[in-house]
Amino acid sequence: MFVEMPVFSTRRCGAGGQVLDLETAVRDGVLGGGGGGGVGFGGGFSEKLDLRKMIRELDLPEIPSVFICPISLEPMEDPVTLCTGQTYERSNILKWFAIGHFTCPTTMQELWDDSVTPNNTLHRLIHTWFSQKYFQKKKKSEDVQGLTSEILDTLKQIKGQARIQSLKELRQVVTAHVIARKTVVDKGGVSLLSSLLGPYTSHAIGSEVISILVHLNLDSSSKSNLTQPAKISLMVDMLNEGSIETKINCTQLLKLLIGDDDFNFQVEIVSSPSLLVALMKLVRDKRHPTGNLPALSLLKSICSCSCSRSQSHKQLRIMIITIGAIPQLIELLPGLNAESLELALFILDSVSNLIEGKLALSDCTNTIPNMEYSLIAIDVGLAAKLLLVIQSGCNPSIKQQSAELLKLCSVNYSDSIFISKCKLTRAIQ
User: Fold this and answer.
1) Judging by beta carbons within 10 Å of its beta carbon (0-12, 13-18, 19+), is residue 363 exposed, middle or buried?
2) Alpha helix ranges (H) inside 227-354
3) 27, 121 in Cβ contact below 8 A?
4) Is this prediction's pTM over 0.85?
5) Among 26, 61, 201, 356, which one is least packed by beta carbons within 10 Å?
6) Backbone angles phi, psi at 142, to 5 degrees
7) What is the DSSP annotation of 171-221?
């Protein structure tokens, strides 16, 4: 049976179309990773590093095609060459032979010799190339750690515009490197950053600090420190007056802070009309739709933590109703994407459990009062038709929607009265 295998080009990625010849590559260091002349095979580090470990940890998106096994499309760890001159990973070509193929997978030539020869030159070249990349990555990580530590030390000593510039540099490093985030946490940077937030902190400083904190893994102690009234007040101010990026960062940080198991702790954080008003402004901001989802997500978290029956949690939901969230969300529903729509409906469901919420819903011009229109729906025969849809072989989602609508029609009646009013036959019953 003829099996067509992928034929790999021997052109080096990024080499401007230069054909890669192994002897030339070894001599000139073409595959040396830009190290200026390449690395010879005698490098002391190469023999000490496990090739499989390096391949797995580096997980590089671009690898020279001659390093790739044409069968597995993965980098070769033990390359062997057939009599046709084609090279494969040893384990892969032996499996090819084991299932009864005695051809070259790439050229489909019949093999006159089924022996395989270790390609030591290519193996050393692969090992050297990955070793270079591994050490470059290791050195880069060490450089990032050093730079992060240096910036943190600098922040302790400077003020004014110089502090803002250092915070910008730290934000760039933290955003780009996971190791930088870990370094900030390990070096006590969270406490340092938190100390910069207070009643007299400028928005220029505050916005940079918040943009760093949202990327960090905060422990319970750090969260507790960040929920001091003065710090929360600053976040709320920036949520009202900051740039769209700052508003989103404040929203994400506040969501992180209320993700604590202590519900009373959460209520203290979010019991602010100014915060709730700012979130609704962000939800409605058509110029910056990127803020819509984070704001709705925080509002959902607030509603989730306010589902307790305690009076304080009830007051929090009443506060959401009082700022006019219900009619605003109802108006936005048609234009929301699926993810935002789900969040908005959760919020509406949460607040509509209260009498105040039901009244607010009934006052909305875009909603339909159940009692009045369910009577009309029954009179025109809608319920009977919905029941037929449910019993038909139509799309399951349509059946589900019909069942929910039928339930709304019947909500004000007992089963017997509903059946009689719908004039359903015994067979349909």
Assistant:
1) exposed
2) 229-241, 244-257, 263-270, 273-284, 292-305, 311-322, 325-332, 338-351
3) no
4) no
5) 61
6) -65, -40
7) HHHHHH-HHHHHHHHHTTHHHHHHHT-STT--HHHHHHHHHHHTTS---HH
Euclidean distance between CA atoms 320 and 95, whole angstroms: 65
Q: Final residue of a domain: which of 350, 367, 384?
A: 367
In terms of domains, do 407 and 351 share one?
Answer: no
CA atoms within 13 A on the CB side of 1: 5
Query: 364 is written with which tokens?
Result: 């909305």
How far apart, in whole angstroms, are the C-alpha atoms of residue 408 and residue 420?
A: 17
Task: Name the DSSP letter for residue 68.
Answer: B
User: 182-228, pLDDT tens digit by residue?
Assistant: 999 999 999 999 999 999 999 999 999 999 999 999 998 999 899 99
The residue written with tokens 């922040």 in the block is 155
Whole domain around residue 304: which residue ranges? 258-367
Same domain for 402 and 335: no
Q: pLDDT per residue over 275-298, tens digit each?
A: 999 999 999 999 999 999 999 999
What is residue 336's three-state secondary structure?
Answer: coil
Question: d(Cα 198, Cα 245) in Å, to the nearest integer?
Answer: 20
Query: 3-state class of 397 per DSSP?
Result: helix
Angle between helices 325-332 and 311-322 (to 10 degrees): 60
